[in-house]
Amino acid sequence: MRKLPLTFYARPALEVARDLLGTLLVVDGVSGRRVGRVVEVEAYLGEHDLACHASKGLTPRTEVMFGPAGRAYVYLIYGMHHCFNVVTDAEGVGAAVLVRAVEPVEGLSPGERTDGPGRLCRVLGLNLNHNRQRLDSEGLHLLPGAPVPEAAVARGPRIGVEYAGAWAAEPFRLWIRDSGHVSRFVSRAPRRRP
DNA sequence: ACCGTGATCCGT
DNA sequence: CGGATCACGGTA
């Protein structure tokens, strides 16, 4: 199966997010080849999207998001979990799609949980070494999967971005409705002002 | 509900 | 420099 080309990613984040559902995320490292089917994603649209890290502007961390499409954007959060994104859209646009859950396909212990952005990075072996890596490389790429019909796609607000005001309510989280490997809904109330 | 854990960013 | 914050997950 042929890798998704870098041009696949060079489109608005929401389009890429939609088309990422059902694709196969391949991580091939020293510890072997691991593959997961993408079943849940979130689109982060760019600098104007207040939930997007790029809304902080061009910083050392967000630089990769402003670069060419088809790179990995991996960051550490809460000091212990990694999150894996694909950089999308035109160069100069700070957009990306967060992969929030996959289904185990290959190289994973049966029954191992692959839902949740931090967990999927842990089980696939994704870490900061993958940050900025091209998504057409042997060690890290995506493959086309069986097409996911529109009726199977569910949409809702993104998780954990309550700080983003009106942007938090936008239905930019997409998942395969019947997957069974979609992350548990974690609702964080906006922190109450003291 | 609560907290671990460290990078990142911003204000001083 | 300090301190707040964080696109989370495990335990309670």
From TrEMBL:
Keyword Hydrolase: yes
EC number in record: 3.2.2.-
Protein keywords: DNA damage, DNA repair, Hydrolase
Annotated InterPro entries: Formyl_transferase-like_C_sf, MPG, MPG_sf
Similarity comment: Belongs to the DNA glycosylase MPG family.
Enzyme superclass (EC): hydrolase
Keyword Hydrolase: yes
Protein name: Putative 3-methyladenine DNA glycosylase
